[in-house]
Design brief:
heterodimer, A: 261 residues, mainly beta, outer membrane lipoprotein receptor (LolB), chain A, 13-stranded antiparallel beta sheet, 5 helices, 44% strand, disordered N terminus, B: 404 residues, alpha+beta, two-stranded antiparallel sheet, 15 helices
């Protein structure tokens, strides 16, 4: 299974910090104006700031060699704090990941041990998926690390979209050669992110779908991450329950809590 | 008077010069015998060390494993291959290989997991006898693992301590379990020292959810069989698999051994060049000193051949003395160095290309250890003496007798 990392915004937002567009009060610039592209990216970057959430999701991973579905319960506080634990299968039940700012811990239920994920393990798979540990903690901001250009506005597969081309700034700490981001015109929710390597080859695609409204927020309930290496492998995350009205604070995201869950 | 008798007397007439010449030859021979023995012993010891601890003579992998070491690139019919190899006198043992993470206390490190058939592996590998602290694996103790030296230091663990192993099972599950360090290895090689974790085959299969198949078969050839011939036999037995001899797997190392032998030949040449010049000088001096004598000999009817024979006989006598002295002096010290060896560990230990050498360097003894340097010495003396001998043989009697 090949793994490459995606920017945190793609994962931390969509996976650990539950997705949902904030009711932004600021005025949206005209789509043809030069500020529009930066505005959309900023919105994606800041979408979940300060958000509290709790939910249950199903992660389905398919690789060349195996296929499995795990059920996960997740809590999050903004982008920086999250806790995810496995509900099923039984063998892995209780195994959990804690993200507290840039630190990552794994609690292994079978052995009762907590392991801090060190630098050398960041490239490893997160819970067997196509996401890396790094995907969870990396702080990249689309609006700061990339030069953004709107390349298309119009219809695609029956939806009105805006499409942006993101090219990393020369000194940006990113691994991609290019990212193409598509958002729907309706509410500027991301639909698709296509990642290219430095040779201009498509490497992986992240798709968001099944947007629905929950407690006044628009949430893409389904996210699929697919490496484009012809292997047919993918990781799909489907939110079963989402609740934004939860009473948790930073203290919840501690190693002690991780162990006691 | 016979040529030999005359030569013998001539040698002892100028005792000091003869002794210096014989001493130079003796020292050169002594040094060369030791040098040959040292390099042979070093190369043989290093090879044995690598083959015993790490490589075996030949390794078998599934096609493509070496390019992309995946848990799924397995050899499925290992039992048949091992059985077939054994009936042909080979030693063979299968290993399971995987990557994972080991954690102890607050530290963690990436590790290479090796699941081995403990009893069978002992017949192809000496790694089990290289335990620094604690004990080697025991099939009856599946929780027990043995770790590399530097890894033990990184994780700050020793025998009896707990280590959590975390990896991904072949079925995609979050494979993790708790193990107890049974032993810490001596220095084996950079890879094993830094990241090696040995566990029993059963423990590996259980952790990684791999009920069957193996990743590697380590093969030892029967005594006396040539490496290439052995590799060919293994290839025939496992035509669909990737079969490589250790020289193919570690080309840098095997070419380093080759180049060491080249270095030996060069040093040989340099030392004997120097000895050749000493002999040339000594013989030239003895010829010039006796030019009048040779004139008289020739005037008395000795032909050029006779004079030449005389000179050659003189140097032959000196060479024989030197060979006898050089060999006799070498025998006890070579015996001592080949049996006891030199403990390099005390000097600081040896590690080259990431492979830890046996700290005791033992010299090697073969017939060629003595024969090679002796033949080289005789050849160089023969060349060095040619010019003075010809000079004396072709001397003109009248001029020679007027020589002062």
């Amino acid at each position: 299974m090949k793994r490459t990392s995606v920017p945190a915004c793609a994962l931390a937002l969509a996976l650990l910090a539950l997705p949902g567009s904030c009711p932004g009060g600021d005025a949206v610039p005209d789509p043809e104006s030069p500020e529009f592209a930066a505005y959309v990216m900023n919105r994606i970057d800041d979408q979940y700031r300060g958000e509290r959430s709790h939910g249950v999701m199903e992660m389905h991973v398919k690789t060349v060699h195996w296929e499995r579905t795990i059920s996960l319960e997740a809590w999050s506080l903004g982008k920086d704090f999250s806790l995810v634990r496995i509900l099923s299968p039984k063998k892995d039940r209780g195994t959990a990941t804690l993200k507290a700012e840039s630190d990552l811990f794994t609690f292994l239920a079978k052995t009762g041990k907590t392991i801090k994920i060190t630098e050398g393990m960041m490239g490893g798979s997160w819970m067997g998926s196509h996401f890396t540990n790094d995907d969870l903690v990396k702080h990249t901001r689309l609006s700061e690390d990339y030069d953004i250009e709107k390349v298309y506005s119009g219809e695609a597969s029956g939806t009105m979209i805006h499409r942006f081309k993101l090219v990393p700034k020369p000194d940006a700490p990113v691994v991609w050669g290019k990212i193409v981001v598509s958002v729907r015109q309706l509410d500027l929710q991301p639909l698709r992110q296509l990642f290219y390597d430095e040779d201009g080859k498509e490497v992986r695609v992240l798709k968001f779908s099944e947007h629905s409204e929950i407690e006044g927020r628009i949430v893409p309930r389904k996210m699929v991450m697919k490496p484009l290496d012809g292997s047919g492998e993918y990781t799909q995350v489907l939110w079963k329950e989402i609740d934004f009205d939860v009473d948790i604070d930073k203290g919840f995201f501690s190693v002690q809590k991780l162990k006691s869950l | 008077m016979g040529v030999f008798k005359m030569a013998w007397r001539n040698v002892w007439r100028s005792r000091r010069r003869s002794l210096v010449t014989v001493a130079a030859m003796t020292v050169a021979l002594f040094v060369e015998i030791h040098h040959t023995s040292l390099i042979d012993g070093y190369v043989a010891g290093a090879e044995r060390n690598i083959l015993d601890l790490e490589m075996g003579d030949v390794q078998i992998f599934a096609q493509g494993y070496r390019d992309d070491p995946s848990l799924y690139a397995m050899i499925g019919d290992e039992e048949e291959i091992i059985a077939a190899l054994r009936t042909r006198g080979f030693g063979a043992s299968a290993r399971l290989l995987g990557a994972g993470l080991a954690a102890a206390g607050d530290t963690s490190a990436g590790v290479m997991l090796r699941g081995i058939d403990v009893d069978r592996d002992a017949r192809v590998s000496a790694v089990g006898r290289h335990v620094l602290e604690g004990r080697w694996l025991d099939p009856g103790d599946p929780r027990g693992i043995v770790v590399g030296r530097k890894l033990a230091r990184t994780l700050a663990v020793g025998p009896g301590d707990e280590v959590v192993m975390l990896t991904q099972g072949a079925d995609g599950s979050m494979a993790n379990d708790l193990y107890i360090v049974r032993g810490v290895l001596k220095s084996i090689g950079e890879g094993v020292d830094r990241a090696g974790v040995y566990m029993t085959e059963a423990a590996f299969r259980d952790l990684l959810v791999m009920p069957r198949g193996v990743h590697q078969i380590v093969v030892r050839r029967p005594a006396g069989m040539d490496l290439e011939a052995a590799t060919a036999v293994v290839r025939d037995l496992a035509p669909d698999l990737d079969v490589e001899s250790w020289t193919q797997l570690m080309p840098t190392l095997s070419s380093m051994f080759e180049s060491l032998r080249g270095v030996m030949a060069t040093v040989y040449f340099i030392i004997f060049m120097a000895v050749g010049i000493v002999i040339l000088n000594a013989m030239l001096m003895s010829v010039f000193e006796r030019i009048r004598e040779f004139g008289v000999l020739k005037a008395l009817g000795t032909g050029p051949g006779g004079v030449m024979k005389l000179i050659l006989a003189e140097s032959m006598i000196q060479t024989v003395l030197a060979v006898a002295a050089g060999c006799l002096l070498s025998i006890p010290s070579i015996w001592y160095l080949s049996v006891k060896g030199i403990d390099m560990g005390k000097i600081g230990g040896l590690s080259i290309y990431g492979i830890a050498w046996d700290p005791v360097l033992r010299f090697a003894v073969h017939a060629s250890t003595y024969l090679g340097p002796v033949v080289a010495l005789v050849a160089i003396v023969g060349i060095a003496v040619l010019y003075p001998a010809l000079k004396a043989a072709l001397i003109r009697p009248v001029e020679a007798m007027h020589h002062h």
